Amino acid sequence: MKIALSSMQINPGDCQANYLKMQAQIKEAIAMQAELIAFPQNALSGTYLGELWQNDDFCQFADSFNELLIEASDQIAIVWGNVKYRHGHLFNCAFFAWQKETRMKVKHPEHHFMDEALYFEDSAIDSEIEYKGELLKLNFGTDTEADVFNINLDHHPYCRDLMCCLHHSGVYVNALCVESYGKNVFVCPGGPAYYQDGELISSAPFLHDGLTLIDTQQPNHQKHELCELDVMLYGLKTFDAQVLGGKMPWIIGLSGGLDSSVNAALITMAFGPDRVYAYNLATAHNSSATKQNAQQLADALGIRLNNGAITQLVEASRDVLCNEYGYDDSKWPSLVMENIQARIRGHLLSSFAAIHGGVVVNNGNKVEVALGYCTLYGDAIGVLSPIGDCTKCDLFALSKQINELYEKEVIPWNLLPEVSDKIEWETPPSAELKNDQLDPMKWFYHDQLLDDLLSGMDPCEYLRAYQSKELFAGKYGFWLKLYGLDDPQEFVKDFCWFTSTLRRNAFKQLQTPPILSLSSKPFGTIPVIQGHAVYPQCEKLLKEITEA
């Protein structure tokens, strides 16, 4: 059978525009002599629409396009995903139409990034389909059946921890779109594929708006891989076009550190140098190395860099607090002045954005957000956090990839660590808000620990694995020894600091900007509980480890 697989870019919430794209691709598929065309799940509407699914008029409007597609099935069979709305009842469905005859399957509501049961009802409707001598089966996601040809529709965001595949014969048609839902910006990468008996035979390019023809009797065996950097750039470009109109300047604080360097490269690659305005907002504690890094990066990317110092504003703030309100700065903890500096930077970046009619990009990485190593209304501002779902380790890898792509040093190499039997930094990570300041994180180790805890790792099981020495044989072993955490007392001290800091800063996790989501557990999809939880079993294990 010749099947046309659609990878059309879906405009969330714009059913009319999506229908016109589908109509054009149906005509194209007929011209290609395809016998069937398959569109992704929720191709007409998008999926992550929140309260729109509770709007009767919108649901009726989305449903109305089903009849138009049924009418278009005279010359080709059409499979698509859309809602069915009847008398206040909303179902998320897959449809098959051939010469105005239809079959349907209802999707069981799931709770992944969105609780579908809030909007969609369940039903056992699952019609059998016989077409061109083949028994076809409509499915969602990666659920398949043996002894039939599966047509799997999906609307699955990119996730570095998971690649979707089928375990039986059929085609997989994922959506191509960017959707914002709550604090998360999701990228569905498209890339439809054909499988025989669970083996990937051919796939279309990811992040590509178009139509791919496969012949199940004579497949072409072309396969394509998905690169996370491409996902990020597609997400940035599409978010910018859909949400901001595609013309606004992007304002970035460029410190010369790793996070802002990677972000500057990302937004320059996505929007071009003319739309990027970079500012080095130096404190009295900034090193010449990071200032040089900022200038080197700006020159390599061809972006504007405006250099200035915030010292006058910092001292003015101190004077107001002391002279107008009577405070004694000699009694303040150092954190007071550190946060004042960070908030002044946020104030200036917001002012620059207002002057240029632009938006500020947030430079925070996932570990910093998790541990609250950021200042509300300071470096926690922004319209979007492109690297908010990236650990520092992810940024190390991304930096190398960006430099390889440019074929020159864009991200300064002095920001990347050298790891042997120890870890060495030419320019170690620092907020540079006080003298000789270094980040408190144990990079690589804390990155991995955060990922595992957010993915549901039981802290007690982790402690038992340390106690039994099993932890040293796996991915943690090298870093535990490198950071001196093979000393039980140091391990317990660090573990207690990390977990308590993570819990204590939940309020910051709730207030950070929207995140370009790349993992299975980005902030915004995880229910955040504020307050201290007591685990007697953990306390017992920590005591045993300390006393061993």
Walk me through the structure.
The chain is of the alpha/beta class and 548 residues long. The chain has two domains: 2-226, Carbon-nitrogen hydrolase (Nitrilase/N-carbamoyl-D-aminoacid amidohydrolase, 4-Layer Sandwich); 235-547, 3-Layer(aba) Sandwich (Rossmann fold), CATH 3.40.50. It is 36% helix and 20% strand. The strands form five sheets. A six-stranded mixed β-sheet has the order 5-4-3-2-1-14. The model has no long low-confidence stretch (mean pLDDT 94).
Which key terms come to mind for this protein?
21 strands; six-stranded mixed β-sheet; 20% strand; Nitrilase/N-carbamoyl-D-aminoacid amidohydrolase; 548 residues; single chain; 2 domains; Rossmann fold
The overall pLDDT average reads 94
Rg from alpha-carbon coordinates: 26 Å
Helical residues, percent? 25-40%
**What CATH architecture of the largest domain would you give?**
3-Layer(aba) Sandwich
CATH-derived topology of the largest domain: Rossmann fold
The residue ranges in which pLDDT falls below 50 over 5 or more consecutive positions are none
Shape: globular
Q: Strand order of the main beta sheet, please? A: 5-4-3-2-1-14
Task: Please describe the biggest sheet, giving its number of strands, its sense, and whether it closes into a barrel.
Answer: 6 strands, mixed
The number of helices is 15
Superfamily at the CATH H level of the largest domain?
HUPs
Could you give the distance between the termini? 67 Å
Strand content: 15-25%
> Based on helices, strands and strand pairing, what is the structural class?
alpha/beta
CATH domain class name of the largest domain? Alpha Beta
Q: Based on DSSP secondary structure assignment, what is the total number of beta strands? A: 21
Number of self-contained structural domains: 2
Domain NAD/GMP synthase: 251-455
EC number: 6.3.5.1
Family: In the C-terminal section; belongs to the NAD synthetase family. Belongs to the NAD synthetase family.
Protein name: Glutamine-dependent NAD(+) synthetase
